Amino acid sequence: MNSYSQRALDFLEAGKLTEFDEQFKLALKNDDDDLLFSFAEELYSLGFLPQAKQIYHQLLTKYPDADELRANLAEIAISEDQNDLALSYLSEIKPDSDSYVQSLMIAADLYQTQGLFEVSKQKLLAAKQAAPDEDVITFALAELYFSTREFDKAIPLYLHLIKKGITELSAVNLVERIGVAYANAGRFGHAIGYLKQIKLIDMTSDVKFETAFTYLQLGEYQQAVNVFEDLRDSDHDYPTLYPYLGEALEKLHKEKDALRVFQEGLGVDEYNEVLWQKAGDLALKLGETDQAEHYYRQGHQVAPDDLNLTIKLSNLLVQEEDYEGNVNFLKQYLETHAVDPQLAWNLATSYSEMESLDQATNYYQLAAKSFGDNPDFLKEAALFYRSVGKTDAMLPLLKRYIELEPTDGEMAQILSEYH
Questions:
Q1: What share of the chain is helix, strand, coil (3-state, %, to 5)?
Q2: Could you tell me whether strands 168-169 and 172-173 are parallel, antiparallel, or unpaired per DSSP bridges?
């Protein structure tokens, strides 16, 4: 039918906006209501929201019980950032309306965009109760649970859809989704069964990462390396891949390759303290202590509050007998942080070697509260107290050490001297 609505759409397609506007006004006055409704839907899909809204308002005045029009007006209001107006339209749609489920879905989307996930869930659960067999609702609820990392709730919903033969909805691959959900839930055996069904070329970067990570957790290290390397080739700036690719290479005893991966990762993300630490650990394992110290120091500069990095650097300084360097490093650290038991032990060792005996005594006392059952600490502290003539402090540590290490004849001999 050569209606005003159709002519308006033809002019719109031809880019003749003045002629479109003229035909639009004539359509409002002359076309029947069914034509106008279809016209409004076309305009909405094309992004001409003010014109679509005008038609819906005109029809709603004529058909005040047409809740479908209210739902459409609510969607337009959301598109125009008029959320309160949208909720006003939706509140007028009652549970006995044919458009009630649609209104719940629209409200759920709105609340989700506002970060009100619990309210959004309640709307979707109400929609599912009203229409339990609607696949779109099941999918929307699964997606919401997925986005809020409630994977154990999302999985059965995805599984329900897949068992019905539905493997894609709204351009979302459900096989991919359930695989990622299983992986994030720590159910790696289930995850890989789904993820292996997807070709690498069809995977997003996130799904490649989850697939490689799943292989890593299952101990299939070469498979993990293969997928991580594919991810690196297709998305070099994906920073999270580098710590795990390096870890997988380490598991394959390819330490030098792993260290190169950590170095490459630092070129992508120099503020990743995990990479600095892993690079330091591996350099130390390879006997490259100077390089290890460099990595630990850089990591500490990036994350000065990271206790693990601080301890690793301090341990290395003590191991390398750089006692003064360790004291200077920890003095600065302790200006803003509480002393950790391991750091207290390292300071005690350092001060002892530097013959700062009072300082060493203080830190051995601090460390003893946590290392009272550690044979290495007990022996070191007992020998220190013996060297400075503090027998009362030495004896309980020495006795406890002998209980833990009864075959140490040298220390047993020392203990016998005080009986």
A1: 75, 0, 25
A2: antiparallel
Neighbours of 407 (CB within 10 A): 7
Per-residue model confidence as pLDDT tens digits over 348-367: 999 999 999 999 999 999 99
**pTM attached to this predicted model:** 0.76
124, 108 Cβ separation under 8 angstroms: yes
- Angstrom distances, CA of residue 388 to CA of 361, 371, 384: 9, 20, 6
Q: Give CA–CA dist 83/77, Å, rounded.
A: 6
The CA distance from 207 to 64, in Å, is 48
Instruction: Name which of 374, 328, 366, 332 is nearest 350 in CA terms.
Output: 328
Summarised one tens digit per residue, pLDDT across range 49-59 is 999 999 999 99
CA–CA separation, 118 and 143 (whole Å)? 14
**DSSP assignment letter at 201:** G
Cα dihedral 31, 32, 35, 41 in deg (nearest 10): 90
